[in-house]
Design brief:
This protein is mainly alpha-helical. About 60% of the residues lie in helices and about 0% in strands.
Amino acid sequence: MTTHRSHPAPVPPVHPARPVERAMTAALVLAVIGGLGWIGGMLYTVLGWPL
């Protein structure tokens, strides 16, 4: 037997600046900056080796 709801479930309001999205964006930006710094450090190290 199925149940019947007389009213639909309430939908939470959508906010343009949700804190979770801001935190994810900040984490991704920091990860990209860290990755670029790591690549730069590797290039600096390899180019600095005497050949």
